[in-house]
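About this split. The held-out portion is used to measure sequence recovery: a designer receives only the structure tokens and must propose an amino acid at every position. Recovery is the fraction of positions where the proposal matches the reference. Here is one held-out target exactly as it appears in the evaluation file.
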């Protein structure tokens, strides 16, 4: 299982995303095809990040909220795989956060499994 940092960031003058502070973490299990997300202060809520199955979608990932009472998944956001200077980052957009500056850092885990997740 791999651990990923979820952080608030900002772009510098060159366009590189710089970390401001961690706001949570994600776990990716090679045997599953999704990443579990834990946001600081929301530890009792279950969120997952899954690759988008529609190849025509504008985003690369879907963020789901898992309702623990009825075990249903509700889409609450999306993720965009970044390229170029910021390769290895996923920009997240949640329905309930000012999420223009929330990222997951995959850069430390460039293995076959994370490439499969990030494809």
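Reference sequence for scoring:
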């Amino acid at each position: 299982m791999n651990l990923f940092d979820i952080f608030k960031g900002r772009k510098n003058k060159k366009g590189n995303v710089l970390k401001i502070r961690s706001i949570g973490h994600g776990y990716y299990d090679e045997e599953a095809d999704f990443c579990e997300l834990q946001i600081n202060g929301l530890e009792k809520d279950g969120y997952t990040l899954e690759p988008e199955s529609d190849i025509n979608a504008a985003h690369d990932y879907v963020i789901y909220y898992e309702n623990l009472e009825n075990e249903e998944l509700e889409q609450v956001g999306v993720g965009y795989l970044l390229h170029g200077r910021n390769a290895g980052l996923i920009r997240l957009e949640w329905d309930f956060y000012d999420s223009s500056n929330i990222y997951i850092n995959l850069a430390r885990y460039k293995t076959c499994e994370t490439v499969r997740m990030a494809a």
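Annotator remark: The beta strands are 2-11, 17-28, 35-39, 46-51, 61-67, 72-81, 89-94, 102-105.
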